[in-house]
Amino acid sequence: WNNATQARRQVGSSIKPLLYTLALQQGWKQSDTVLDAPLVGSDYQPKNYDGRWTGVFKTMRYSLDHSLNLPTVRIGQQVGLNNFENKLRDLGLTPPADAGLSLSIGTLEASPLQMAAAYVPFVSGGLYYEPTLVRKVEDPRGKVVYTRPAPAPRRVWDAQTAWLGLDMIRGVVSDLSPAQGGLAYRAKIDGWNVGGKTGTTNEIKDLWFVGVTPALVGSVWVGNQQGGSLP
Length: 231
Hints:
The protein is an alpha+beta fold. 28% of the residues lie in helices and 18% in strands.
């Protein structure tokens, strides 16, 4: 059993950059504002992670930097859940049936390998590559007994949208100090342009970080193999 490739865990807020980038593709700007307040006229009543809300409009960039759930759900409403589900499928992910607005804040389940692959287009100019593990096998004499060609890239973002999404997740790492609530500040590496997003599910069952550099993409999940909250 390999958790990196086989396990499916709720991804929490690590899904948010994919939604925000879809909004950018639709013409939103990072400076556009969204209300940070409970939903009105909806049976679904999500909360921000700390249970508080400001009741004022926050920019998209601020909302992602601080991983605010309430503005994110509103973005999901305006972007369109069907559009988001289709984009997730383009990125190799499988949206759960009837997830509703909760999909926008991470009820989707995925493996670390799937999440890493979904972030690759941020640094590949918008191209998605299906993950492959073994390209070639040789016997002891050097004879090739198995080959698999490199996967053909598939465009999922235009180059400008991919760059804007990359700029947003770089902001998640670099915009805020720990005292300002910088959730991904510890991912900074001197001399490297690092971007990424944390993710935490209810009752602290799953902890995530998916990160990118110009050359490498990585995904980390922390949790109990058997499920349940972390101590």
